[in-house]
Amino acid sequence: MSKSARYEWRDKQASLHERLKGFLQNPGDEQMETLVEEMRAYADAARSGSIDIPTRSTIYN
């Protein structure tokens, strides 16, 4: 996995995390639809191979 692909994946993960956090703080139909759309887009990109997903954990403490 290239460095740029790893950064792209990390950015998508951060975006999903922030969207989920926002929904949990202010649950509503609009926020949920936006979250679900973003999650579907991420899943579609992963399925089609347009984003790389690390095969092992890259979490550092």
UniProtKB/TrEMBL annotation:
Top-rank taxon: Bacteria
Protein name as catalogued: Uncharacterized protein
Taxonomic source organism: Massilia cavernae
